[in-house]
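Prephenate dehydrogenase: structure tokens wanted.
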Amino acid sequence: MQFQRVLIIGSGLLGASLGLRLRMLGVEVFLEDNSPMACSLARDLGAGVIASKDEDIRPDLVIVAVPPDVTPRVVCETLERFDDAIVTDVASVKKRIAEGVNGHSQAHRYIGSHPMAGRERSGAIAADADLFEGRPWVVCAGPTVPPDTVLAIQQLALEVGAMPVMLEPAEHDRAVALVSHVPQLVSSLVAGTLRGASAKDLGLAGQGLRDVTRIASSDSALWTSIIAGNSRFIAPILEDIGKGALDLAAALRQGEENPGAPGVTVNVAQVIKRGNDGVDRIPGKHGGAPERYTHVFVLIPDKPGELGRLFSDIRDIGANVEDFSLEHSVSQQVGRGEISVIPSAAKFLASGLEERGWQVFIEGGEQ
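Answer:
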């Protein structure tokens, strides 16, 4: 690790998670935050020590982990406070920040970055030293940034478990609008339709609704700043989604008024098919090509130790789990575990679990 003294400004999820990981690597970490309580919480969790106003800490790296709307100002202030430190930020928009910093006389010491890691929960209480494991870490270097500074931030990403990716600020913002910002807004829009739903209706909710709305509980203040900072790339995607939704609604209205009208079912099928095509393009395990898995479903009694027993049995059987999810249904005393495996392993796993007393179903038919 090139950096031995790091100051993190902002002690939320990303700042605290970075502090935890850097301290595990033996780095001396100092914390600053406008909220004394937030800073104290991050300290108490082990993310670093609170920087004293009277102490000349002389960091060799400053990580700015504040909302995007104030990031340019904080970066510029930080460049003036510390003459020799490299300064980076971890905000999820990059072009507006670069535009706000590039005119500074010390802009050559600033390099934008963004770890593509997060959670639906915010704040230091959700921090995790392993948050960046296997995640892309985008590095956006300005034209005056020396190569050794770029290399140092790339190495920082590697040290915390991430994979550095070089992009121009506009490239980054266009990409995250598509894969992060718009999904957040769509999830929130869907969840917003539930506000007036009856308890009876919501009692029918299944895993599909939970999957779509999982990230809708995210921090509204933070996301307001993020979305406002990337509106130029988000708006066209929302317009495209909106047009598709309006076209589909019009077709459905036509079918309601004139059952059997031509083109209604085709419109629905096209929407679903386009979704299938899009999902197939999302990278699969380890970033490779997406794979088709078979799903083995297991009924898991809702009592202590049962989930651990299931995983222990899977280990003993010797099957490799590609993915796992657990769904609870209202008023049922069991959960339904969904185990994703390569197709050739499905019957082998199902038979082994059934022999150990589990009630098992294979996708497409009962075991």
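Residues 231-257 form the longest helix (27 residues). The chain has a mean pLDDT of 90.

Cheers.
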